[in-house]
Amino acid sequence: MASNRPAPEAPLPSYGYEVPNVPNAAGIPGGAEGTWGEWNPTEKSIRPVRGRHRVAKQRGGIGRSSTVLGVGVIAAVGAGGIATAQDKPAVSISLPDAIADSLPDAKSLPGIGSLVSDDSGSGVQAGTGTAGETILAAAPLTTAGITTADAQQGTTDAGEALRARILQQAEQQQDAADAEAKVAAEAKAAEQAAAEAAEQQSAAEAKAEEEKRKAEEEKRQAEEEAARKAEQERLAKLAASYSLPLSSYTLTSTYGQSGSMWSSGQHTGLDFAAPKGTPLKAVHGGTITSAGWSGAYGYRIVLELPDGTEIWYCHLSSMTVTSGEVGAGDVIGRVGATGNVTGDHLHLEVRTPGGSAIDPAAWLRDKGLTV
Predict the structure, then answer these.
(1) Are 294 and 302 spatial neighbours (Cβ–Cβ below 8 Å)?
(2) Using CA atoms, how far apart are residues 251 and 68, in angstroms rounded to an integer?
(3) How far apart are CA 301 and CA 320, in angstroms?
(4) pLDDT value of residue 136
(5) pLDDT at residue number 48
(6) How much helix, strand and coil, in percent to the nearest 5, is found in the chain?
(7) What confidence score (pLDDT) does residue 369 get?
(8) Structural domains in the chain, sorted by start
(9) Could you say which residues of the chain have pLDDT below 50?
(10) Which of 331, 239, 240, 322 is nearest to 282 (CA)?
């Protein structure tokens, strides 16, 4: 089996122990002469690696945009340093056959087997040296991080591909953070707009309610004013067709007044004091149904109105009209002091069609006349 013999002008360094019966670098056998041989590493002579390989635990969640970009830039710079490994030539490792035969198959090693290929195009290539040594020619490992998508895009630099992926991930995280901030801002703006709209609507409703109240108040006042004017017009028309019984007088007794002078104990009419002979007028157009002596009432005239209401003129000194139709304001008699009286006056009574006495002052006011 061929092996790679070290060049005579570049002997391997001595490491301080005898190898009997093994030629040294100059071709002289070792042994008792105390010559030194080539040091070949073995399982017993290799000092085991101590310590642990620690991998930092990655924290979950999306970091802030500045932190993400900073980490991405640092990782990208590191990946760029890895990319420079492609500029270095492949290193051949020479091992004696005795040691190479005792080594495990590279494909069976965790994390290494996937990098080893049997063909000549990629992976690790094995060969035989000139002195029975096995040579493992390692292809550059910088292509180990290239994905299928990177390869389809023509990327051959694993470091550059890693840097690009880190930057892309950082950009995606930044975009996600920006989108989340935009959504939050839009939600806040929408909430503020809704609050302002609700406030404006409430103000508009309050204003509309106030305007409605004012409109109703104005309408009520207008209706009251219209009713007052209508009543004034009605009374004015009535007053044109009604007349007070005397043009000049003094009220001496009112309706319902108590006293021993009246047989019923209460006054049933309205007394207008005036000089004897003062003309008496018909309060409204009607028919004289009765005229003559009536006991305590003295001389009395009864005027019946179209609605059946009777007007009694009592204690007259004389009667001008004793029957027939008369008009409002016509003179029908004169003031006197006949019957149960204490002086000259007109005792006026107003009776309903049923014969009940009512307040003459209220009846005259309802006709637009004030006593």
Answers:
(1) no
(2) 109
(3) 10
(4) 46
(5) 56
(6) 35, 20, 40
(7) 87
(8) 1-39 (no CATH), 94-139 (no CATH), 250-366 (2.70.70.10)
(9) 1-2, 10, 12, 14-20, 31-35, 53, 55-56, 58, 60-63, 120-126, 130-141
(10) 331
Q: 324 with 290: CB under 8 angstroms?
A: no
Q: Which two tokens stand for residue 351?
A: 């009776």
Distance from C-alpha of 30 to C-alpha of 39, rounded to nearest angstrom: 13
Nearest alpha-carbon partner for 340 in 305, 294, 307, 308: 294
Cα–Cα distance between 345 and 362 in angstroms, integer? 20
| pLDDT of res. 120 | 45
Contacts by residues 352-355 (CB-CB < 8 Å, ≥ 24 positions apart): 352/308, 352/309, 353/307, 353/308, 353/309, 353/310
pLDDT at res. 67: 55
Long-range contacts of 135-140 (CB under 8 A, 24+ apart): 135/4, 135/92, 135/93, 135/94, 135/95, 136/92, 136/93, 136/95, 136/106, 137/90, 137/92, 138/90, 138/91, 138/93, 139/90, 140/85, 140/86, 140/88, 140/90
How many angstroms separate the CA atoms of 217 and 118, rounded?
Answer: 103
- Residue 297: the pLDDT is 92
Using CA atoms, how far apart are residues 357 and 277, in angstroms rounded to an integer?
26
pLDDT attached to residue 88? 57
Three-state SS for 190-237 is: HHHHHHHHHHHHHHHHHHHHHHHHHHHHHHHHHHHHHHHHHHHHHHHH
Pairing state of beta strands 331-335 and 250-253?
A: unpaired
* Token duo for residue 223: 């209706």
